[in-house]
Design goal:
Largest sheet: 6 strands, mixed
Distance between the termini: 11 Å
Order of helices and strands: EEEEHEEEEHHHEEEHEHEEEEHHHH
Number of helices: 10
Shape: flat
Radius of gyration: 22 Å
Helix content: 40-55%
Structural class: alpha/beta
Strand content: 15-25%
Number of strands: 16
């Protein structure tokens, strides 16, 4: 049996606007949902990972939702063919399932705790919680300051931009990518993140997400219209009835980084730092916003100012990532305290029950 394909992305992010949550979008169309609840160290990520592994071994494609605060952890797995998902329902994630109550299972992993052993570490756990919250607050404040610097950086290019040329370029790509195609249905729009600011720095899944697709690499500068083009392309695809994957910027979720329409076989994305890629396939194309839309010589004329913005932005981002790394270290300490009070046999029983229930669905789907 062929193993299933795994699609990797983030459904949440550590951004300049705080923790951004898009997890509900991935729950569209589900008919069964397991929402895992419980403290750190109770096995939520492990259950998600093992459910995903079992399903891919059975030949089902899955979506793996990665955790931005922990590079080695997962926040969810979706099995589209089974219309089933398993997600982490603990803050800062907010899950609002739009399906009947009898189709949602809340799984409380705190049942596996030895309350007596947990109580002995309560003081240390509470102290770590405060420190973790403070580290995240400092990280988000730093990202917000970086965004203000980035806005000033963008202003240089916006002041030298030919908006009519940008509109014409966008119209050209709407015609080129969609033509007169209309699938004759209502399209689905999925909101996600292709990458995230993590304790190990910026991480993205562009190669995985664009596998097998015609790729358009949008090059340009801050403020050269990349996100605006992507928003218009996403709207055009949705209006025509296509299923559109909309990938928000992991730094500023109000901006977009990528649009994918798999029915038409293309991905178009902002291919600048921190997710900078270059064409490597014969079918890859570059969309150069700077060349098309920015007054020639802008880089040279404002080189000193641009260099200053870039240096200040990079320093603030590095500082903020440092706070995320500090939070992760504290989380690891807290997790160890929780894990010492967990009855792993009960966690395994819960995991096996979930896998068993989902496995029963596979017989009807194969």
């Amino acid at each position: 049996m062929t193993t299933g394909h795994v699609t990797h992305y983030y459904a949440g992010g550590n951004t300049a606007r705080g923790f951004a949550n898009q997890i509900d979008s991935s729950l569209q169309g589900l008919e069964r949902l397991y929402i895992l609840q419980g403290g750190p160290g109770t096995g939520k990520s492990t259950i998600i990972r093992e459910v995903g592994a079992r399903m891919t071994e059975s030949g089902f494609d899955i979506w793996l939702l990665h955790r931005p605060s922990d590079n080695d952890a997962l926040d969810g797995v979706i099995i589209p063919a089974l219309k089933t998902g398993v997600v982490n329902g603990m803050p800062p994630r907010v899950v609002h399932p739009r399906l009947p109550a009898d189709k949602v299972r809340y799984v409380n992993l705190d049942d596996a705790f030895d309350e007596g052993r947990l109580a002995s570490g309560k003081s240390a756990i509470d102290s770590l919680s405060e420190q973790i919250s403070f580290a995240h607050t400092r990280a988000y404040a730093g990202f917000a300051e970086a965004l203000r610097i980035h806005d000033d950086w963008e202003a240089v290019y916006i002041a030298n931009m030919d908006f009519e040329a940008a509109d014409q370029l966008t119209t050209r790509y709407i015609r080129q990518l969609f033509g007169d195609n209309r699938p004759g249905k209502s399209g689905r729009v999925d909101h996600r993140f292709l990458g995230a600011a993590t304790p190990r720095g910026a991480v993205d899944f562009v190669p995985n997400l664009t596998e097998g697709l015609k790729r358009y690499f949008i090059k340009g500068r801050p403020g050269s219209g990349k996100s605006t083009m992507l928003k218009k392309l996403a709207a055009a695809g949705a209006e025509r009835g296509f299923d559109v994957e909309v990938y928000h910027c992991g730094f500023d979720p109000n901006s977009l980084d990528m649009v994918i329409v798999r029915e038409l076989g293309f991905a178009i994305f902002d291919s600048t730092a921190p997710h900078e890629y270059f064409p490597e396939r014969d079918t890859d194309d570059i969309v150069d916003m700077y060349a098309h839309c920015i007054k020639p010589g802008t880089d040279e004329k404002y080189a000193a100012s641009i260099s200053g913005f870039k240096d200040r932005y990079s320093a603030k981002m590095k500082e903020s990532i440092g706070h995320l790394a500090q939070a992760k270290t504290l989380q690891d300490e807290q997790t160890a305290l929780y894990r010492s009070a967990v009855d792993l046999r009960l966690v395994e029983e819960i995991r096996d029950r979930i896998i068993g229930e989902i496995s029963l669905l596979t017989a009807d789907a194969t």
